[in-house]
Structures are given as C-alpha cells and as structure tokens.
C-alpha cells in the first residue's frame, strides 16, 4: 500500500490537471415558472445522439433546459419511467468531473428511471451542451449551484413529488453533491460514487503530496497565465489532457481513465476528458475554496458514499464519511477501481441505490 501511495505521489503534480482536470403543468402559475426557466423539451431516440449506453425499453428520455441562479442555461436529459405515475421521487445526477450527460450520469439516470425514479442527468455549466463562456471551466460555487438548479427544475415537474428529491454525484461531482445537499435543504438524501473532493486535490495534491513551494509555484504560473489569456482574449488549453496512446509507464489510474474516456467504451466528442481538458487556469478557484467545510450540516438527512476497494480516490470517500454526521453509510466495492463505478453495471450497486432512495425519499 505504501509503495502504491508513493507512486501516486510522485506523479501527482504531473497529472494534477487531469482531474483539475427537465410535461404540461396543472396551473398557470407552474407554466409561468417553467417559461422563466426556458425549459425546452425534445423527445430523443437513442440513435439521434451519441450515447455510451443503450436506452432502456422501459424509459423515455427528453432533452430539457433550465437556468441556474447565475443565469447560465443548463442542458439535461430527463428520464421518465414508461409506466408513469404521479408523486414520483426524483434524482438529479451529474459527473464525473469533465464528463457529459451522454456518459456516466446518463447511464445512472437510465438505470434509476428503470427503478421508478424520474431522473435528470445534466451537463454542468460551461461544458457539454450547457451554456457559459469560456468553455471547459469549473467552479466550486457554480458547479454546486448547478445541482440546486436541477432540484429547482425537478420540483416543478407535475409527476414529481418535490418532497422526494435526491442527488447522485459521480467522481468530482460527488463532492459538489455533498456541498449542494449541505446548503440546499430541499434535498432529502444524497449518494456519491467514486467521490473526489476537487478543492482538496487541487489544493493539496493526491494524499497531500503538494509542498508549500509547489503550491506557490502553481499559483504563480496560473496568475501569470491570466495576463496571457487577457491579452489573447481567450483562455489557454492544454495541448494534451489524457495521452492519445499509452506507453505502459503511466500510473494505473491514468490507464483506467484512458480506458474509459479515450476508447469506444466511454469516448464522447463533447467530453473534455475525451479531448483537450480544462483551461490551464481551471484550478485557481479550487485551491482556496474548500467545498466540504459544512458536510456535517447534511445531517439529519442521510448520505450514502460508495467507493471501490482498489480506487486511488477511495481516501476521499473515507475521509468524507469520517467527517460527516449520522445518518451515513460507507459502502466499499470489493476489488473495484475508480472507473468501475462509471459504467460497469455489474459492479455499480444499483439495487442498493434503489433501496436507499426508496427508503429515504418517502
């Protein structure tokens, strides 16, 4: 274990940028609210767009848009059980960090809709089909707000019981999911899978490996880059995010990311992790804005934290669990790695997620 940890620490600075790198309404009032959110719906077929998974025969999918508190229009896919019903529980789902709704979050939404939930998988601000300029930037505040905006939208749907709303966050959006739940008391339960604390990993590196000197140097470089970006009128992007080919010398977790994002398994043309990545100054706001300061304020609402036994990111989940108040549960998947919980339906504990949310969204 120590040897593996040391190896990750050695490459932490090199690869730090890798991960730092919404129905007709019953009343006129509801219709007006939806118009304010500029909701647009369009029935989608599985062949109309590139998805990395098959749409269930028991689920319908609609493209929707809605705005967050900052006026950024977000685009999502609304998944609805074909057997219908009213007063249904609903889930807002996003992640991984740098992915799009046609990847993992859509897969989760499809699976949970099969199990009786209305689900919304959405592209975060500045990414995918959501608006916001410049492209491919992240924010600890705005990305937390994106989840609350999704809760706004779900709470206006006539087939949804707004007292039965939950969140699932994957990878880096696991941290944002916890942060959103802490502040947004409408959320009744939260679950994370392969969670990352993006503030922590940017500020400290993996396993706290970033020295004060390295942190200062990184901040100096990004500060100077701002002048270049201002002069050019556009932000700089990395020439390479994930490698186009593996040499075999990469850390195991980089190989795992490559196997998902750069192959037919998970590649998507709008996914920044499948392409050139975040802006080179993306880490700035994360480095002194911790997102899990108030994790205890999720209580008395429950949280379920799921991580793979062999995931390089497992310690984020373990520490979040330790710092949270009851009720809470940590579920470790035997032999699982970080990316197994992106798309491996025989590994992701969907039955557990179904039981957890059925119990807590009632």
UniProtKB/TrEMBL annotation:
<keyword id="KW-0732">Signal</keyword>
<dbReference type="Pfam" id="PF02129">
    <property type="entry name" value="Peptidase_S15"/>
</dbReference>
<dbReference type="InterPro" id="IPR051411">
    <property type="entry name" value="Polyketide_trans_af380"/>
</dbReference>
<feature type="signal peptide">
    <location>
        <begin position="1"/>
        <end position="21"/>
    </location>
</feature>
<dbReference type="InterPro" id="IPR000383">
    <property type="entry name" value="Xaa-Pro-like_dom"/>
</dbReference>
<protein>
    <recommendedName>
        <fullName>Xaa-Pro dipeptidyl-peptidase-like domain-containing protein</fullName>
    </recommendedName>
</protein>
<dbReference type="InterPro" id="IPR029058">
    <property type="entry name" value="AB_hydrolase_fold"/>
</dbReference>
<feature type="domain" description="Xaa-Pro dipeptidyl-peptidase-like">
    <location>
        <begin position="71"/>
        <end position="233"/>
    </location>
</feature>
<dbReference type="GO" id="GO:0016787">
    <property type="term" value="F:hydrolase activity"/>
</dbReference>
């Amino acid at each position: 274990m120590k040897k593996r940890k040391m190896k990750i620490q050695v490459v932490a600075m090199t690869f730090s940028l890798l991960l730092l790198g919404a129905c007709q309404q019953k009343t006129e009032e509801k219709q007006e609210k939806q118009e304010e959110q500029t909701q647009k719906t369009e029935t989608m077929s599985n062949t109309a767009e590139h998805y990395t998974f098959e749409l269930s025969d028991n689920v319908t999918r609609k493209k929707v848009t809605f705005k967050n508190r900052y006026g950024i229009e977000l685009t999502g896919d609304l998944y609805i059980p074909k057997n219908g019903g009213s007063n249904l529980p609903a889930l807002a789902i996003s992640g991984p960090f740098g992915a799009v709704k046609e990847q993992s979050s859509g897969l989760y939404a499809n699976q949970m809709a099969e199990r009786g939930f209305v689900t919304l998988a959405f592209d975060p601000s500045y990414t995918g089909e959501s608006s916001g300029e410049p492209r491919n930037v992240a924010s600890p505040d705005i990305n937390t707000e994106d989840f609350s905006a999704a809760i706004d939208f779900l709470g206006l749907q006539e087939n949804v019981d707004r007292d039965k709303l939950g969140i699932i966050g994957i990878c880096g959006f696991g941290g944002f999911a916890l942060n959103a739940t802490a502040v947004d008391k409408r959320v009744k339960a939260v679950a994370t899978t392969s969670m990352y604390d993006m503030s922590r990993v940017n500020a400290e590196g993996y396993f706290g490996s970033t020295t004060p000197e390295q942190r200062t140097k990184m901040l100096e470089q990004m500060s100077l880059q701002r002048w270049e970006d201002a002069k050019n009128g556009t932000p700089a992007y990395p020439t390479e995010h994930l490698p186009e080919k593996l040499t075999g010398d990469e850390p195991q977790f980089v190989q795992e990311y490559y196997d998902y994002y750069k192959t037919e398994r998970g590649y998507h043309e709008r996914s920044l992790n499948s392409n050139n990545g975040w802006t080179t100054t993306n880490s700035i706001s994360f480095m002194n804005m911790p997102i899990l300061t108030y994790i205890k304020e999720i209580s008395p609402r429950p949280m379920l934290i799921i991580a793979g036994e062999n995931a390089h990111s497992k310690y984020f989940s373990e520490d979040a669990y330790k710092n949270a108040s009851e009720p809470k549960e940590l579920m470790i998947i035997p032999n699982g790695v970080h990316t197994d919980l992106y798309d491996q339906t025989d590994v992701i504990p969907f039955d557990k997620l179904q039981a957890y949310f059925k119990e807590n969204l009632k």
